[in-house]
Amino acid sequence: MNLPFSQNDLSHVVETDRAHVWHHLLQHKALETSDPRIIVEGKGMRVWDAAGREFLDAVSGGVWTVNVGYGRESIADAVRDQLIRMNYFAQSAGSIPGSLFAEKLIEKMPGLTRVYYSNSGSEANEKVFKMVRQISARHHKGRKNKILYRERDYHGTTIGALASAGQPERAALYGPFPEGFVQVPHCLEYRKQWDVENYGQRAADAIEEVILREGPDTVGLLCLEPITAGGGVIVPPEGYWERVQEICRKYDVLLHIDEVVCGLGRTGTWFGYQNYGVKPDFVTMAKGVASGYAAISCTVTTEAVFDLFKDDPADPLSYFRDISTFGGCASGPAAALENMRIIEDEQLLNNTLVMGDRLMANLEALKEKHAVVGDVRGKGLFQGAELVADRKTKEPVDEKLAQRVVAEANAQGVIIGVTNRSLPGLNNTLCLSPALIATAEDIDRITDAIDVALTRVFG
After folding, report:
1. What whole-number distance in Å separates Cα of residue 234 and Cα of residue 190?
2. R_g of the chain, CA atoms, integer Å
3. Distance (Å, rounded) from C-alpha 26 to C-alpha 245?
4. Are the C-beta atoms of 450 and 373 separated by less than 8 Å?
5. What is the DSSP letter of 235?
């Protein structure tokens, strides 16, 4: 690490941070007796903190975001050049990078045609909910307004997005929530609710049961993650997505795939849903769209959905009356264009598949070695290991022990994640999402650190 700051400068930053910054996802009482973590530099998959310590980042910026790694000068140059040329104009007008990125994005998403820009995954999902409510009001006499979401899935931090949170601890204390959001059962076969041979189809059938209970004429949208992320890295079982698609078509329910985590290569395909042959009506994305180099999110729709908002040009309420202020910031699509070029030119989708296979093999080896590892699952460079106190009963380990594993890996210079304040009693899954540039050496170092951490915590 070679920074243009003295140690006195960095000490001042730490104290100023402690005095004035309200961090995400932290209980600040703990910072009264310990220093806040200040990350001051990143390169590739490595980051350095204010104390000069180096870490291998196995979670892509902490929240599955920095897909192409740190220190990409070409993305920084693209953002700089665009900001000098034209930094911002409200999205009621267009921009060159906004137009060009939409074209490139749609090329990767057959069947979808329109891109609506905003600046976060939460906001992108809110746009879908608003669109569905407007479609209900204008085309279904207000009836098909209910939004179904899945247990253990997560769609953002706003009040509307939290109304669709299948993670009770995320939503706790923030109600009351808007009406019309209805939960459907999860599809984690490791903790299956039904003892049947074809669990995937049975889990999907449970969605149909909810639709029938609520009334098909009242249900407008089904919102799902292609692979559940913060709810425990849940890969849908065989037969699930085919049946989900069939149910949506049967009952005229629009299908919304939340790709905020899986999008832009995380699973080895451009989007997670493309692993399953699904044809969604809406796809939302953020995080890896620009790998964290600029704020951007996208709500992508079919032309059929788009056409529902231009049915009566003479009616002042017929169009989508929404704006996202920073959806007009041109740096986002400029960064996204270069981010996508890097993924293509460096063949990072293929690397994700190859390194994902290595990661899964290493996790399977840890499962063989450590009885506390009850299940390993995932796809590409998006994987998890669920820790249990007893393999036979599948009793979860105490979440404090899971957090100790994270701390022990951190002590070895490897940053890993864990489900956190999401599911009462089930915050027990280690989460791994290394950048798509990961090498075999990186993957082995990550799992070696977990191996040592599990030994230190559980013996």
Report:
1. 9
2. 22
3. 39
4. no
5. P
CA–CA separation, 377 and 316 (whole Å):
49
First to last CA, the chain: 35
Instruction: Give SS3 for 264.
Output: coil
CATH class, domain 73-345, is alpha beta
* Averaged pLDDT for residues 38-47: 96
Tokens of 352: 């994700």
| Size of the chain, expressed as the number of residues it contains | 459
- Model confidence over 50-100: pLDDT tens digits? 989 999 999 999 999 999 999 999 999 999 999 999 999 999 999 999 999
Cα–Cα distance for residue pair 280/278, rounded to 1 Å: 6
416, 430 Cβ separation under 8 angstroms: yes
Do residues 356 and 383 lie in contact, with contact meaning Cβ atoms separated by under 8 Å? yes
| CB 317 within 8 Å of CB 94 | no
DSSP letters, 62-110, are III--TT-B--HHHHHHHHHHHHH--B--TTS--HHHHHHHHHHHHTST
Domain ranges of the chain: 37-66+348-458, 73-345
Count of H-run helices and E-run strands, the chain: 13, 16
The answer to whether residues 397 and 429 touch, using CB atoms and an 8 Å cutoff, is no
Tell how far CA 117 is from the center of its chain: 17
Cα dist from 378 to 19, 232, 410, whole Å: 40, 10, 22
Query: How far apart are the C-alpha atoms of 290 and 72, rounded to whole Å?
Result: 11
Please provide residue 433's backbone torsions phi and psi, each rounded to the nearest 5 degrees. -150, 65
pLDDT value at residue 31: 82
> Which of left, alpha, beta for 412 (phi over 0: left; psi -120 to 50: alpha)?
alpha
Q: Write the pLDDT tens digit of every residue in 360-390.
A: 999 999 999 999 999 999 999 999 999 999 9
- How confident is the prediction for the chain on average, in pLDDT? 96
pLDDT (mean) for 136-145? 96
CA–CA separation, 317 and 182 (whole Å): 27
pLDDT tens digit string along 383-403?
Answer: 999 999 999 999 999 999 999
The H or E element containing residue 453 is helix 440-458
What is the fold of 37-66+348-458? Answer: Aspartate Aminotransferase, domain 1 (3.90.1150)
H-helix or E-strand spanning residue 202: helix 199-214
